[in-house]
């Protein structure tokens, strides 16, 4: 898949409660077995959260051999355990089983959509995400996943509309946890990328700037902001943005190269030829990308 910031969002279900467990009328033996079942489910979920995927799969398989409640949720989490092992065919089988057991379960359809996406089937993944949204339109994750697929299918306006729904839902919930703020930042980052694709640079700049308010260290949003500034003719601001990015110590060689490249072309626009030339030299040291090399070699000459 692509960068972490553009990956689909997974939903891992915690089965902490089985209806009726505290209800009156159960004898002590029934309560004992229900408590034991809950403990086993929680143990399986803990293994999944700890990224002990093979052990989690074995635990879910054991649970699915018994006459347990909420079987569809066990199949969903089993699917995400297979996803952790990058075994997406197995993930699809588990998630599809969940949709057969409970066709009206939106989480199962979202799980199926993720598996199909990872398997390189965006059209069928999109249909699964649409089904999840039809069953529950209030889940921001479903909208974000749909937006990601629509962008890959180059349906950028629809992708923007989907991400806007996610942003609206996330904002309404007044996110407080880091994970919620991160999800909102990614929704805005995805929207900014799509605005760039259709050359709506002011809207892109706004989206990236808002994303950085929630997650200031997001590299994709930082780069997107710099590109939007460059396209808007705000070359000094763009140059400052790329300068700041290049101070990061977590960039790969290719990431450094692309930022040096944008730094160089921004400096060209403000007639800082010597500094631009130094930036282009860095590009040539860092990348083997033919397009980037051609631009760097051209320097500030006619393009």
Structure description:
By secondary structure, the protein is an all-alpha fold. The protein has 3 domains: 1-9 and 27-131, Tetratricopeptide repeat domain (Serine Threonine Protein Phosphatase 5, Tetratricopeptide repeat, Alpha Horseshoe); 137-220, Serine Threonine Protein Phosphatase 5, Tetratricopeptide repeat; 233-303. It is 72% helix and 0% strand. The protein contains 15 helices and no strands. The chain has helices at 28-49, 53-64, 71-84, 88-101, 106-118, 122-135, 140-152, 156-172, 178-197, 201-214, 219-231, 235-245, 253-269, 273-286, 290-298. The two termini are 33 Å apart. The relative contact order is 0.06. The model is unreliable at 1-6 and 12-33 (pLDDT under 50).
Key features?
303 residues; mainly alpha; Serine Threonine Protein Phosphatase 5, Tetratricopeptide repeat; 3 domains; 15 helices; 72% helix; elongated; disordered N terminus
Q: What is the CA–CA distance across the termini? A: 33 Å
Shape: elongated
Summed up, the helix count is 15
What do the pLDDT scores average to? 87
Strand content range: under 5%
Low-confidence stretches: 1-6, 12-33
Largest pleated sheet: none
- Radius of gyration from the alpha-carbon trace, in angstroms: 24 Å
Which sequence of SSEs, written as H and E, runs from N to C?
Answer: HHHHHHHHHHHHHHH
- Bin the helical content: over 70%
SS elements, strand count: 0
Write down the CATH topology of the largest domain. Answer: Serine Threonine Protein Phosphatase 5, Tetratricopeptide repeat
> Total domains, how many?
3
CATH architecture annotation of the largest domain: Alpha Horseshoe
Helical/strand content category: mainly alpha
CATH class wording of the largest domain: Mainly Alpha
